[in-house]
Amino acid sequence: MTEIKLCKDCKWYKRDWLYHLTGAGDRYDKCFNPIVCENFVTGGSTGRYCNTQRKFHECGPKAKYWEAK
Q1: pLDDT tops 60 at residue 1
Q2: For residue 41, what are the CA distances in angstroms to 25, 31, 44, 46, 48?
Q3: Is there a smaller number of Cβ atoms within 10 Å at the N or the C end of the chain?
Q4: Are 42 and 36 in contact (CB under 8 A)?
Q5: How far apart are CA 54 and CA 52, in angstroms?
Q6: Are 31 and 10 in contact (CB under 8 A)?
Q7: Helix, strand or coil for residue 45?
């Protein structure tokens, strides 16, 4: 069997507790992977939403930049 790589098990995953406590779910959780989210002008990481990273951007359905915690 293949291992399923979930965002919540990734090293770069950060949960947004405000939305979890208010019942909005996990769609506002963010990915802070420096390869994907680093701002090269300021040197900081802004973070992007996990669900859009997996669907439309660099990480993809195969979890290309996923790292174990």
Answers
A1: no
A2: 32, 19, 8, 12, 17
A3: N
A4: no
A5: 5
A6: yes
A7: strand
Beta strands across the sheet bearing 48-49: 13-14, 30-31, 48-49
CA-to-CA separations, 34 to 18, 20, 21, in angstroms, rounded: 24, 25, 27
Q: Which helix (H) or strand (E) holds 35?
A: helix 34-37
Token digits of residue 25? 């779910």
Per-residue model confidence as pLDDT tens digits over 11-47: 988 888 887 788 777 778 888 888 877 776 776 667 7
Listed residue (16, 6, 9) closest to 69, CA to CA: 9
10: helix, coil or strand?
A: strand
User: pTM for this structure?
Assistant: 0.71
